[in-house]
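Need a sequence for this fold. Nothing fancy.
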């Protein structure tokens, strides 16, 4: 069934009652409107301040030596940039400067340049192939990663581009996830295919594909139950959903997007590895960069897997999810203006 007219009860009542939006208030949605660069810098402030304090402590009125470089590498590793990238940055800082004093701002500039260099090959937009109708996007990730909210934000963006969007509430285990997707569907004017809590997810996806074809939808966004990557039985169920999709269209899903929570740090590496093997992940979205000092994990992921990073999120509002830009991220995490 679809949510043509969801009732204002429970979650929906809290989100729609009294004119409240479906996102919690944030600096970007109340008071002075910040542009994306300001929101990105603010969102990455915990990461950049952690690294920046280390740079200040290490490079103020001190000649560059082995101990300083080793300590700087430790700062970068603690920020989850990963050993290969941290080593390259340290090498770049030390090149031609050994035994000399170096200003913190110069170190930050080198850091930004090296991070940008690592991220540039993976900064790729999520391109909708107009020849595929519907263009099927399967959204995967563990519980709490922000997957369902990300689907809503993407639906809003695609709708704003004039695309006809349909949503499938494939997380049939959680009533709250179904309600949440219905809320987003109402906000963006997109039909949401649902079944009662506990229903078979693959059956729902089959229905959603039929309805998307019938409606002439441009994009079908499919939510899935949040799964721990070490639960083999749940991952097997995800494989079943994918098999059902391919029965309807052997070229689908046309994109399989893994949503990652930046606050999990190094655990994101194992998530990408397992979901990549089980679901054929084609791209990443990283959320909650504003909630951690370990935003460097995105750099480590780029270095290890080379998967496209389509979007990053630094807040709850719709416009706090934006296409990933390597240069902006590099400058923001280095604390540059």
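Here you go.
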């Amino acid at each position: 069934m679809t949510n043509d007219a969801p009732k204002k009860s429970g979650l929906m009542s809290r989100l729609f009652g009294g004119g409240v939006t479906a996102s919690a208030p944030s600096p970007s949605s109340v008071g002075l409107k910040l542009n994306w660069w300001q929101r990105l810098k603010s969102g990455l402030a915990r990461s950049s301040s952690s690294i920046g304090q280390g740079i200040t402590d290490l490079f103020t009125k001190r000649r560059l030596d082995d101990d300083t470089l080793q300590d700087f590498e430790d700062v970068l590793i603690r920020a989850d940039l990963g050993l290969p990238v941290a080593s390259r940055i340290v090498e770049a800082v030390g090149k031609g400067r050994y035994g000399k004093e170096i200003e913190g701002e110069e170190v930050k500039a080198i850091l930004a340049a090296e991070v940008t260099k690592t991220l540039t090959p993976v900064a790729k937009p999520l391109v909708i192939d107009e020849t595929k109708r519907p263009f099927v996007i399967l959204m995967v990730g563990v519980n709490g990663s922000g997957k369902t909210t990300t689907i809503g934000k993407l639906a809003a963006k695609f709708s704003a581009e004039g695309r006809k969007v349909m949503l499938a509430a494939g997380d049939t285990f959680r009533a709250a996830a179904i309600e949440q997707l219905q809320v987003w569907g109402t906000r963006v004017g997109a039909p949401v295919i649902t079944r009662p809590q506990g229903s078979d997810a693959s059956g729902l996806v089959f229905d959603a594909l039929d309805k998307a074809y019938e409606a002439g939808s441009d994009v079908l966004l499919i939510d899935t139950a949040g799964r721990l990557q070490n639960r083999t039985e749940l991952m097997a169920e995800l494989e079943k959903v994918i098999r059902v999709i391919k029965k309807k269209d052997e070229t689908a899903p046309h994109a399989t997007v893994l949503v990652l929570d930046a606050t999990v740090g190094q655990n994101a590496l194992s998530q990408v590895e397992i979901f990549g093997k089980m679901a054929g992940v084609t791209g990443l979205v990283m959320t909650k960069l504003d909630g951690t000092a370990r935003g460097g994990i995105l750099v480590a992921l780029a270095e290890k897997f080379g998967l496209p990073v389509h979007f990053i999120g630094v807040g709850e509002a719709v416009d706090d999810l934006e296409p990933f830009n390597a240069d902006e991220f590099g400058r923001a995490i280095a604390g540059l203006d």
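For context: Residues 1-32 have pLDDT under 50 and may be disordered.
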